[in-house]
Amino acid sequence: MSAAMDTESTYSGYSHYSGHSKKAHRQGRDRHKSPRSKDGSRSEKSVTIQTPPAEPLLGNDASRAEEGQDDNWGETTTAITGTSEHSISQEDIARISKDLEDSVGLDCKRYLGLTVAAVLGLLVFLTPIAFILLPQILWRDDLEPCGTVCEGLFISVAFKLLILLIGTWALFFRQPKADLPRVFVFRALLLVLIFLFVFSYWLFYGVRILDSKDTNYQGIVQYAVSLVDALLFIHYLAIVLLELRQLQPMFTVKVVRSTDGESRYYSLGHLSIQRAALVVLENYYRDFTVYNPALLTASKSRAAKHMAGLKVYNLDGPGNNASGQSRAMIAAAARRRDSSHNELYYEEADHERRVKKRRARLMVAVEEAFTHIKRLQAEEQQKAPGEMMDPREAAQAIFPSMARALQKYLRTTRQQQYHSMESILQHLSFCITNNMTPKAFLERYLNPGPTLQYDRDRWFSKQWTLVSEEAVTSGLQDGVVFVLKCLDFSLVVNVKKIPFIKLSEEFIDPKSHKFVLRLQSETSV
């Protein structure tokens, strides 16, 4: 309502000023000049509807509120958490719809791959059993009797199939961690190898055993045992290719976040680009501090303010040459820009002072609240067991005493969008349940934690796009650069090969450490 009243008063003042200027000044130059200047001032105060995705609307409002607030602003301010912090344009809507279509395609591809692998695995486990049972069903009367050795082979097949089943379950039946853009090459090669292997065994079995109705049942069982042994060796090959090959570090990757420049280093083995990207993302959610776009708003507004001071006007019209005057104005603007480091220094110093002051107030408020909790616990021990207060009620009882100090500190450090009142109460009740100290409670708020510490709705990075000049199924090489993009920022990954290290040995003779201490007899002591 106040904003609408200010707008109406601005428009009324502007119309009054225009009518007065028309009556007092009839010159065409003044009449055309004043509307341009007023329109220019109006355009600088207009609201921009479409903003870049990496610059949320909350940051600008928070920065303007920080400049004009005093130390008692929390008494008359209401904080509303859980609101949206992104503006979405038509391009973003089209991109989101395209991502949904791509996700549907990825789900179909994933389920198709799982179906093919399940059918092939079922065929592998049923094939040895079928080799043993088919002769018993089709020409049971013509078979030779199965002796002691043949019956021992039954036990061998049973235990080998059990071992193969457990190993396959441990290696392949895992919850998928991500949807990769391309197939895993080694896994696809193993599936093709198993299919060709089982098909070859069935082809030989059909030609040499089923067609001729072989009566040597012990040889048939031995043939099934050889199939199971070969499957165990293929499983060992899968362990080497899928698990052991990537354990030895061969490359060092540097991961840089594009917005704030935070970087980490990781060591990787022989991996494809898409699997290396998956490892980088797993480490990103654990090691990198949570992405906070509000921290970038102050620097962007400062840069925009200094860029606004570089406007040059030609007062003599477009036809006159005023290059000397323009150069003088550019030099003055440059001198003003060179003094911006002083403003940055004092601004950061004032921000640090304000953060330290509010941190001290928060620590004192939390310590007093936890002291009150200890008094409540001492009083509850004297009451009946049915009247004792649970940790949730205790957290709700002491939370108002620290809410104002915590709210002011979170707003000063621009962390209010990551901590709702419900999450704070849950963390407070958790600390009370486990008898944690005030410092343990404040650790989450004093230092920004990794992304996994916060709720998924506040991650700003859920769906990623892999951008690489090389094929994503190719292996890592020295100098390869690929980018992982999400909606608000990107991770730039630079791959470097670990150099070959040559160590030499130098032998030190133990006798070289021996020495003789000679004392002169003619000493004063």
TrEMBL record:
Protein's UniProt keywords contain Cytoplasm: no
Compartment(s) = Cell membrane
Q: Where is there biased composition of kind Polar residues?
A: 74-86
Q: Tell me how this protein sits in the membrane.
A: Multi-pass membrane protein
Entry's InterPro entries? Answer: VANGL
Q: Where is this region: Disordered?
A: 1-86
Keyword annotations for this protein, in alphabetical order, are: Cell membrane, Membrane, Transmembrane, Transmembrane helix
In its UniProt entry, what is this protein called? VANG1 protein
Taxonomy of origin reads: Eukaryota, Metazoa, Chordata, Craniata, Vertebrata
